[in-house]
Amino acid sequence: xxxxxxxxxxxxxxxxxxxxxxxxxxxxxxxxxxxxxxxxxxxxxxxxxxxxxxxxxxxxxxxxxxxxxxxxxxxxxxxxxxxxxxxxxxxxxxxxxxxxxxxxxxxxxxxxxxxxxxxxxxxxxxxxxxxxxxxxxxxxxxxxxxxxxxxxxxxxxxxxxxxxxxxxxxxxxxxxxxxxxxxxxxxxxxxxxxxxxxxxxxxxxxxxxxxxxxxxxxxxxxxxxxxxxxxxxxxxxxxxxxxxxxxxxxxxxxxxxxxxxxxx
Length: 264
What we know:
By secondary structure, the protein is an all-beta fold. It contains 1 helix and 16 strands.
């Protein structure tokens, strides 16, 4: 149960200053793993093979572009080893967290990396239980076909979402493309129980340039966020820090995060 309070922000890597739960980085320190604070690479491609808990074999490929990460993880010893989408973000403080997204937007696990390099290690945590395990990765000499290295968005219209297990936080972003460069959108994000506080933006119309826009939350002085659209996900980033949005949303609730495109 301890994870449900923090998983809602695990792939956006930001926590409000008044959050009651301990940041993931603090928990990692108790496990002997510290977040890297190295400079964020512009773009790198990684191929890894390794294991979780020394006995769950995995293969991962990942691309880092600016501060975003996307790729796939395959649990190679399963009966039908189907790749699972990975999306993540390198926070401004260097924390590296990458989430497993199912096709319906459900997040089943979170990788917290020590660093991104030819070899890597860290903690993998389940969103369905109170369990976390160490993972260890080493470089694999291989190539993956049809890899998206551009992240370029196509049509923006659709439903984007995430859900951290049955009891974790959830988020939804709905977009309707009115015409080229103009959309309507709405957002609703809910923290984990027992509080279930809400961050909500009612339907509004905005202009989009280069697949992104900056939005000022109505009736606030300095609560701004940016939404940038990619091929199959959207990244919402709160600007000016969380203090600028105090009072705009429910306690610890935020619109920030990586929303996977589940419906076109």
